[in-house]
Design goal:
The complex is a heterodimer. Chain A is of the alpha+beta class. Chain A has 3 domains: about 270 residues, no CATH class; about 230 residues, no CATH class; about 40 residues. Chain A is about 25% helix and about 35% strand. In chain A, the strands form 4 sheets. An 11-stranded mixed beta sheet of chain A has the order 7-8-6-5-9-10-4-1-12-13-14. In chain A, strands 18-21-16-15-24-23-17-20-19 form a 9-stranded mixed beta sheet. In chain A, a hairpin with a 6-residue loop joins strand 15 and strand 16. In chain A, helix 2 packs antiparallel against helix 3. Chain A is globular and about 125 Å long. The relative contact order of chain A is 0.14. Chain B has a domain of about 190 residues. Helices cover about 70% and strands about 0% of the residues of chain B. Chain B has 23 helices and no strands. In chain B, helix 2 crosses helix 8, helix 11 packs parallel to helix 18 and helix 22 packs antiparallel against helix 23. The two termini of chain B are about 40 Å apart. The chains are: A alpha+beta, B mainly alpha. The interface between A and B is large, with 57 and 65 residues. Chain B: Keywords: Endoplasmic reticulum, Glycosyltransferase, GPI-anchor biosynthesis, Membrane, Transferase, Transmembrane, Transmembrane helix. Chain B: Belongs to the PIGM family. Chain B: Pathway: Glycolipid biosynthesis; glycosylphosphatidylinositol-anchor biosynthesis. Chain B: One of its GO terms (cellular component) is glycosylphosphatidylinositol-mannosyltransferase I complex. Chain B: This is GPI mannosyltransferase 1.
């Protein structure tokens, strides 16, 4: 019988609890009585659940090829991980790819029935990118309860298939409590793998006080990894080197190997990974709207240290700086203006998807907003000014409504792609010094690295990562004040959230009465006035003409 | 001194000056586009040229969002798509082909205005047994032609790339063939073409039919031979009406065959159903903003218990706002100024011509004033008739100088007040929808109604 696989990975770092020995994260870690005892302390944590196809009612998802649900907090701490660097864009995202020939609306119904979500959205609210139908919400500053409920029910149901209600309740309580503090999650489903694992749920906590034991379960194959980053080795090998242990144990193995239920000694291992998403610490970016803003504005993005080289060796890699926007429907990009402007500005529009009607007000738009991907050139100028426009908003029903609004900051990153052409050229230039075997080793190293990837990170097949090739490494820039003369990032974010502020004017709906009265009076009286003037002047003229003719 | 001034003040020199001014405005526009934040080129010009690029690539011009015009416009601007040379200056000039075309149309419109004015004045002179125009009349014609040719608003609109001047040529040609050449079929074909280009010239059809029917009444000397509306059916009116319908329908049929429902929707249906919520000069603007929201699903979801969506939706201005506009500009004004079957007077041809042109002017002015959406380009629609209106107007008399200046002052001031508020909204994001924008629109509307009153009075004043 297939079971759910759960991998719990805990990372210790020097910012964490001093009770944990960073040089030996395994100190105090013991396995005993079907349980792992993990030393109490603060960890960075990722949990990954792999749900096999046999445990999913695939008939409920017959029209879906792939789907993915991702959420990430707007808090800057959610973007700090070097190891679990999935880098999910802030907010809640649904990605849906119907099977070929399947109706998008039917697939949508299947998805929302499956996750038991009666959220008031429809396929009309989704936008279509070349990869999928996508829905995004900016206003989910907290973990979306409907999704966390789905996750905990899914896992606790399987975990306790034949267990008591008490155990299920315990599982739900514990998981729900943990889910409250997560910083991001993703649920990924791929219908193509009929005999393999169809669904992967990944949960991430940037810092969690882990003070419990991990039970070996009859229905979930659990795997535990506890690591710390070895900085010296990481520098030496130019990779991220993790020291610690990773081990999995099923209940059968446990009974077989440890009949006496004794203490298992754990063995130290070293894992070298090449993260697909990295943080580029040499540069940061600052973004803002100049205040006061009008209805047609520019979003300013300033990159620090623009004189710096791209993050990876230019001789082998093609590195380009990108800005990825997910804007709410209050904001729209005019693709024609962007294409026209890109002839003389330092950015180029790569793709724009979403609501294309430039005239509609917010309340007439079903789609959630737009996605814009821009390529920027900061060789000569470190500021990028992307023109955008604001739609008219719903009149305010509440007179105390604030006119402050927020736009999610763009993801700003270098995308560096291994270029075989450049590699060949590099080899040709180095021909005298480089042996064929060296070259082959170099190619093999990179290709192996990229195909192997980071075991802690799965490449999304539906989000913006998929606009890039498999050979791409992303170097993310963090948001922060670039220099003293520019706007401070802090003043333009809401409580450290990764958003930029703008304000939009809205009329008060209560004014409709006076507007109606004045408009009607003016319209009726003016009509009567003009009509009367036409008639009286015509009559005067006729009288005058008649007199003259007589 | 006077003589040299007279010799300088010629049509040729006026056209040269008008051309130079347009070139100057055009060059300044290039400079502004290249150096300033706010662009000189009208956003619509980019819409036209983008649509042309789609056509150039074998696609429909309606692939370009917000293209709501006849496909003919995008065809005419096809050369603008050839701007892929290495030389940036050449590309810029090729891209500006449309502007050159609109400037040329502007100048040709000026020439047509001159010709029509010349005809009207000459007819008047002939009526007074004078077969030649004196220098005073000549100067008057040139001065009135200057109202169009040297008008900074007219020049700005064509050099920014707005296509109104193309329509101006069509409308003026329709008048030229109707009044001067008496070629009613050609005139009707041109009117049909105008309506195909933009819907609003349809308001000239009833006026033209009434005008022509009145011409034949005088010839027949039997004013009450038929009752209305049968007394409008004459050979000339049939020629005009049928040729108008023929030209309109054949062009529409051709475009429908090529672009299908896209053409019908974007060129016509959209304009009939649109609710313009974005700020503009119209009296109805803020009302329509509220009503577009009331009609949305979002309103039904968000409205609280104090507002019953069904009650508030029972009466919507957007559904009746066209009524005063249509009644005044299509029915009341044309009949008041042109229909005299039941009146016991005989008007001469000159009076009828004046009344016809004044009627077109008043209709257009009223149509724009009461429109659901008003932008500066719409003023061009009635400015083309202004020289004809002024020809016989008492507003040019010295004794009425103060009145004329006050009309101009209030028209400009009311616009300026509105524009100031619009600037605060558009560029500074200030919440000035109510009361600022609303009452400045009301003020602008009232000023226009007041001006309309003066124009109505003036339209009848010298008619005998």
């Amino acid at each position: 019988m297939s079971t759910i696989k759960q991998r719990i990975t805990l990372l210790v770092d020097d910012k964490g609890d001093k009770k944990i020995n960073i040089n030996d994260p395994l100190e105090g870690l013991v396995l005993s009585e079907n349980k792992w005892f993990v030393p109490n302390g603060e960890y960075e944590r990722q949990d990954r659940f792999v749900i096999p196809s046999s445990l999913i009612d695939l008939s409920k998802l017959s029209g879906i090829d792939k789907f993915s649900i991702e959420w990430s907090s707007f808090d800057e701490t959610s973007k700090n991980s070097e190891v679990f660097s999935k880098n999910i864009p802030s907010g809640l995202n649904y990605y849906l790819k119907p099977k070929d020939g399947a109706n998008a609306s039917t697939s949508f119904d299947e998805l929302f029935n499956f996750i038991d979500n009666n959220k008031n959205i429809s396929i009309e609210n989704f936008i279509q990118t070349p990869l999928s139908f996508q829905y995004h919400e900016d206003n989910n500053f907290e973990v979306p309860t409907e999704i966390s409920k789905f996750i905990s029910n899914l896992i606790c149901d399987y975990d306790n298939q034949i267990s008591s209600d008490r155990k299920k309740q315990y599982c739900l309580t514990k998981l729900n409590r943990d889910l409250l503090s997560i910083s991001s999650f993703s649920i990924e489903y791929n219908g193509k793998f009929k005999d393999k694992n169809n669904m992967v749920i990944t949960l991430y906590w940037p810092r969690i006080n882990f003070n419990s034991m991990i039970m070996i379960s009859e229905y979930i194959d659990k795997e535990l990894g506890v690591f710390s980053i070895d900085k010296k080795l990481s520098i030496k090998y130019q990779d991220l080197v993790l020291l610690g242990f990773i081990d999995n144990l099923k209940i059968d193995d446990f009974n077989k190997n440890f009949p006496e239920k004794g203490i298992k000694k754990v063995r130290k291992t070293m894992v070298s990974i090449e993260p697909r998403h990295k943080f580029y610490r040499e540069q940061n970016f600052e973004s803002f709207f100049k205040q006061p803003n009008g209805l047609n504005e520019k979003h300013h993005v300033i990159i620090s240290d623009f004189s710096n080289e791209a993050p990876m060796n230019k001789e082998i890699f093609d590195c380009e700086l990108f800005l990825y926007y997910e804007t709410n429907k209050e904001i729209f990009f005019d693709k024609y203006q962007l294409v026209e402007n890109s002839k003389k500005e330092n950015y180029k529009l790569v793709g724009l998807w979403g609501e294309s009607d430039l005239e509609k007000p917010v309340y007439s738009i079903d789609k959630w907003g737009s996605i814009g991907l821009f390529q920027a050139d900061i060789n000569k100028k470190n500021s990028i000014e992307i023109p955008l426009h604001f739609r008219y908003l719903e009149p305010s029903l509440n007179s105390s409504n604030s006119n402050k609004h927020f736009m999610k900051k763009p993801e700003v990153f270098w995308a560096c792609e291994l270029s075989i052409d450049k590699l060949n050229k590099f080899y040709a230039e180095q021909n005298d010094n480089l042996k064929v075997s060296d070259y082959e080793e170099l190619v093999e190293k990179y290709q192996k690295t990229y195909s192997k990837r980071n075991p802690l990170d799965l490449k999304s097949e539906l989000n913006y990562e998929s606009f890039f090739t498999d050979n791409t490494i992303f170097f993310h820039l963090k948001s922060g004040a670039v220099n003293e003369t520019t706007h401070s990032a802090e003043t333009l974010t809401e409580g450290g959230y990764l958003v930029d502020e703008y304000s939009l004017p809205v009329p008060k709906f209560n004014d409709i009465s006076i507007v109606r009265i004045v408009t009607s009076i003016v319209m009726v009286l003016s009509f009567g006035f003009i009509f009367a003037k036409l008639i009286t002047n015509r009559r005067k003229m006729l009288v005058k003409a008649s007199k003259k003719q007589n | 001194m006077m003589k040299s001034w007279d010799s300088l003040f010629s049509l040729k020199n006026l056209m040269i000056l008008a051309t130079l001014l347009r070139i100057g405005f055009f060059l300044f526009g290039l400079f502004q586009d290249l150096t300033m934040e706010v662009k000189y080129t009208d956003i619509d010009y980019y819409v036209f040229t983008d649509a042309s690029r789609f056509v150039f690539n074998g696609l429909s011009p309606y692939e370009r969002e917000t293209y709501r015009y006849t496909p003919l416009l995008s065809w005419v601007l096809l050369p603008t798509s050839l701007n892929n040379f290495d030389n940036e200056l050449i590309n810029l000039l090729i891209f500006s082909f449309g502007k050159f075309l609109f400037i040329l149309a502007d100048l040709v419109s000026g020439y047509l205005i001159y010709q029509i004015l010349n005809h009207l004045v000459l007819n008047n002179a002939t009526n007074n047994n004078s077969k030649k125009l004196d220098s005073k009349s000549k100067n008057l014609i040139l001065a009135l032609t200057s109202v169009w040719l040297l008008n900074p608003m007219v020049i700005t609109i064509s050099t920014r790339g707005s296509c109104e001047s193309v329509l101006s040529i069509l409308v003026l040609s329709f008048i030229y063939y109707l009044l001067i050449k008496k070629m009613y079929i050609v005139s009707g074909l041109l009117l049909g073409f105008s309506i195909h280009f933009k819907i609003y010239p349809i308001i000239y059809l009833p006026t033209s039919i009434i005008y022509l029917s009145q011409l034949e009444i005088n010839n027949q000397k039997n004013t009450l031979s038929f009752f209305f509306p049968f007394n409008l059916i004459k050979l000339s009116t049939l020629k005009l009406a049928i040729s108008t319908i023929l030209s309109l329908f054949s062009l529409n049929l051709l475009m429908y065959n090529l672009y299908g429902h896209q053409f019908l929707y974007h060129t016509y249906l959209y304009h009939l159903t649109r609710i313009d919520h974005r700020h503009n000069f119209s009296l109805y603007n803020i009302m329509l903003y509220f009503e577009s929201y009331i009609l949305s699903d979002s309103f039904k979801l968000n409205s609280n218990i104090s507002i019953n969506p069904n009650t508030i939706q029972n009466f919507l201005f957007s559904k009746i706002s066209f009524l005063p506009q249509i009644l005044l500009s299509i029915i009341i004004i044309p009949f008041c100024l042109n229909y005299f079957n039941n009146a016991n007077i005989k008007l001469n041809l000159i009076s009828k011509n004046y009344l016809f042109l004044n009627s077109l002017f008043l209709q257009t002015f009223t149509f724009v004033t009461y429109n659901k959406v008003i932008t500066s380009q719409y003023f061009i629609w009635y400015i083309i008739f202004l020289p004809f209106f002024l020809l016989n107007s008492s507003l040019l008399l010295k004794k009425n100088l103060l009145k004329s200046l006050s009309i101009l002052f209030f028209w400009v001031t009311s616009q300026t007040i509105w524009l100031y508020n619009a600037y605060n909204l558009e560029f500074l994001g200030k919440n000035v929808f109510y009361p600022n924008i609303f009452y400045s629109s009301v003020f602008f509307f009232l000023v226009n109604v007041w001006i309309l009153d003066k124009f109505i009075k003036d339209s009848f004043l010298k008619i005998t």
